[in-house]
Task: structure prediction
Amino acid sequence: MLFTLHFKKIVIMGTLFIVLLIFTMGMLSGCKKQDSDTLVIAEQYGLAYAPLQIMQKKGFLEEALGESVEIQWVKMGNTTAIREAMLAEGLDIGFMGIPPFLIGIDQGMPWKIMNGLSESPLGLVTNDPDIETLGDLIDAGKIALPQPGSIQHILLSMSAENTFMESNIFDHQLISMNHPDGYQALLVDDTVVAHYTAPPYLFYELEDENMRLLTSGKEGMNGSFTFIVGVCQETFYENTGQYAAFQEALDASIAFIYDHPEEALDVLSEAYMLDREILRRYLFHDEMIFTKELNGVTRFIDFMYKQDYLNNQWEAEDVIWKNN
Result:
């Protein structure tokens, strides 16, 4: 679906949707997740989620929690799906970019950031030989990215603001696709002329001699930033046993990647169905960093508030849980 509306109109519609959904969930309390013996975790697509793949394959979370808790992993295409599942209390932890998280909390979503997960190179790639600059991209065709308000959307808006002093200049060209579909569309759909994506899809595209990078996330952000964060609602945060166990398992998973790189490659090459040596280049790329530390939250808040993507100028400490 093309983004034919100004982003702020989308935000208003999203706010009304969340208010209605919260009311509905309050009326349908029998549908809520009540079972504390089940832990449900949602991730999305891409190499930035590698520690979660390690956690699943190595059983670090089962080890930290004990056998009494059933762990369910689900893969979702975008933050909207994660938000809806969490509102319905069918999900405990979700992983996403900082901007869609901020839009959610700004609209009344009762969640906060638990931890960082990764930094990553992000970029806008084109396969059109006539598009060499961002200026050439204006009105040239569709731009695929995960959803309005995604980190890719906000980084593109930052680049547009830096270049044209107009953050929403590309909004009417955007089309929502998850990373695998966006990659395929760039290859086979003549109407899609650019794709704002993340590894491994970014690496796939840049290894194609017919594709080129128009702008990077670092250029838009004017520096490095956390790509993926883990978020949860207060009910899970207050479940101190499971919350602490997850943090312990995540520490172990990140450490495993760096302390046991060969075994990590064995695990992840199977999980991502990638050649082991190709994966080595991707996983240990200079800009691919797995860490729980947070970077860039205030910068995203300031930009998004200034450009009316947020109604409130939040303080970073108001959107991050204090770890126990």
Summary: The radius of gyration is 19 Å.
